[in-house]
Write a structure and sequence with these properties.
- The protein has about 230 residues and is an alpha/beta fold.
- The protein folds into two domains: about 140 residues, 3-Layer(aba) Sandwich (Rossmann fold); about 90 residues, DNA polymerase, domain 1 (Orthogonal Bundle), CATH 1.10.150.240.
- The protein is about 45% helix and about 15% strand.
- The chain has a six-stranded parallel sheet, with helices on both faces.
Amino acid sequence: MKDYTHIFFDLDHTLWDFEKNCSETLSDLFREFQLSKFGIVQDDFIRTYKSVNYQMWDDYNRGRLNKEQIRSLRFPFTFEQMGLKREDVPANLNEEFLRICPAKGHVVPFAHEVLDYLSKRYFLHIITNGFKETQHIKISTSDIGKYFQEVIHSEICGWKKPDKAIFEYAIGKINSSCEECIMIGDDLFTDILGARNAGMDHVFFNRYHQQHNQPVMHEINCLRDLKNLL
């Protein structure tokens, strides 16, 4: 393993536990808005929303959708997929989701332990395609902000992962070089392809043992594995 000075992390799914935080939020909203009155069950609602949201974020990362479309369409699409009408979506459902979900503080298992370990040895930073007004809330409520020197938002710098420009911007911001940096993320397209595009070493965090045939430099299934790798 090379001697690195800087480590870049993705935020959602890599450190901030989207699956758990989103599920809790959707459960809260299912009860608050009494969505069972539409003849749907909570688990199906959560599963359908996550599928719709995943596809819409993939489209966003590939430049097919914008921020406003994601926020205005994900619940209508979820209802439609469940055989309901788009107009059945309760008013303020999306607004409540945006208020509650980022304030959930669950992190991926061992995140604090690993960040505490790495922060004593490296400068740590975040590169995220997530929306800036929610990402800073997630970082604060999950109590991980203390570990990071820089948080690079795609919305602020103007480029999204996997564009190599966002990585070049990040490296320039910390006054470093590509050779001194490594990227850790859960997404083969945005994080791993992005790092490869920039010529940066990388670690694919494959928490759910996703089958793939993509070339990766390092692959882990648990954040704790980073303590042996770095």
